[in-house]
Structure formats: structure tokens, C-alpha cells
Design brief:
It contains 18 helices and four strands. It has a domain of 105 residues. Helix 16 crosses helix 18.
Length: 323
Amino acid sequence: MSKRSNARRRAIVAARSRQARINESKRKVTTLRTYNDRSLNRLTDSQLRSVAKNIGKQTEQARQAAIKKSQDEFYNVPIITITKRDRMYAARPLVPDSVIQAAPSKQRKLLRQQQKRRQAARDKIARAQQNLNLLQQRTIQQQRELELAGEDVAETGYRDRVIQGDRGLRDLVRMTNVLQNDEFVQDMTRTQLIREIKDSAERIGKKTSNKNNNKKNKKKKVERRGKKGSRKWNNYVRDVTSHKLRDAFGNSLFHMYTRLTDKQRYYLQNATNFMAIIAAVIDSLKRRMKGRVIWRFNSDSGRDKSAVEQQLKDFITQAKKYA
């Protein structure tokens, strides 16, 4: 092939490339697959503002949904539902121990079962009444504000401040959505606008980095646990919590928790004191077994183990009913 043909060919390719760049700059862009520096820097100023406007709209929708969710009621103690059967058993008189001992062997087992049901019903009604007296009338948002200020420590008697709930939900409620303000967007520099777009996109769960970059930059700890608020992180929290419950309280509470759905576990973590109680009464031993952390009930917490276990079970029962 002659030199003249090669030059003509390069000129055609260059002209097509220029035309492709011009066409790309005129194209209307509002969304991207990935909101990273590479994708955003390719956009023109007008395209960048269109993307910012769209992300601002989606962020505001997510923020309003988060505000609405944060106005749900928070339960510092479980709500126990009393059924007709509970009232029926509680109304019946307890069987004296002397009557049980004097009964024939076959009838003795039946009397013990009756006694157990009646006593359990009375205890359940007593717990329900006690919890109604202790229940604080506040929303999830009000509870988060108390936790952030550390005021819940004096109220609950927990050793340390525990900030519960969905961090992403909390951040959305507290953020200021600057991308909603057109004048503010117009006055921002290109660098500032890209930073705000990436920040808002990350808050609403959009992809903000390439997989290859993640593998190079993420720490091993983050890779194992996942990013807070992600599905991988929620699975990590579920596994750690279930291990704590099994080591500290045994299989009964462990199985109750692991059988919950994701929605029910989210309800426990966000709308109840379930996680704060676990943080207050369970700690780890210094030694490990086969590389796994060993958890135990902290007897120095000043809480009765059986009472705490029953309270956690009541919270799980509430989550099954209301979540």
C-alpha cells in the first residue's frame, strides 16, 4: 500500500473520530452506568448539568422516602400482643403443688402442663403491662438524634453509646440536596459538580467506581464485610449477630433470629432496641476457637440473662407480626 493511500486512510479515520466526538457532545445525557471520574469527565458542561439535575431529582425522592420512613414509631421495649387464649389461661387458678404430687402419674404430667401454660400466660400479661409503662413515645428520627447526642446512655443504662439503624437512611435524612438548586449548580465549578454528583449517586446506591479499581483500592476488611448499607454488609451483620446469640443464649434464640426475613431483620435493627441490647450484654472472650470469635453473656452488665433472652424473643415476635 502506497504512502498516499495510508495518509488518505488516516485522514478519513481522524475526520470520523472528530465527527463522533461532536455527535457525542451534542447527545442528551441524563443517566450513566457508572458515576465515576472517568465517565463524568467525558461529559460536556451542559451534559454534566443534566446529569446533576437528574441525580438531584432521584436523591430528593430517596430523601423524602427516608424522611417518611424515619417518622415511624420506635420501640425501646417490645410490644406484646395478648390473645384470648392468654387471657383464658391466666384467668384459671394455679394448681397447687400438693395436688400435683397427690395425683396419679399419668394425670401428674397433664397437671404440670396446665400449670406451665397458666403461669406462662400470667407472666406474658405482666410483661406486656410493664412494657406499656416503659414505652417511650418517639419516632425513629427522634431516637437517632438521642443516640447521636449520647443521651440514650443515661436513659437505658447501657455502658456505651450505641448508634443503631440504617446508616444510609440516617445520612439521607440529615443531608442537604444541593443539586436541587439550579442556581447553585450553575455557580459550581466542574470539579465541585463532579464531586457532588458522585456523593449523591453513592448515597442512593448508584455505582460510583469500576470493579477493577475497587479490587486495587479496597482494603481486605471492606472486601470481606462489604460497604455499609450494601447486601454484603447486611449479610455480614446477620452472621455476626446470629453467632453472638448462639454463643451467649443457645440455639433457641439463634434459630428464631436466623429464620427471620431480611425485612424483619431490618425492622429489628432500625425500629427497635434489639441491637443496642445485644451490644450492651454480649462481649467477646480474648481467646478464639478455630479462628472464630467466642461471644458470651456479660454478667457484669447488671442484667438478668433469662429476662434479656425473653426480651429479645419478644422483639423477634414483634418483628414477625409488624414487619
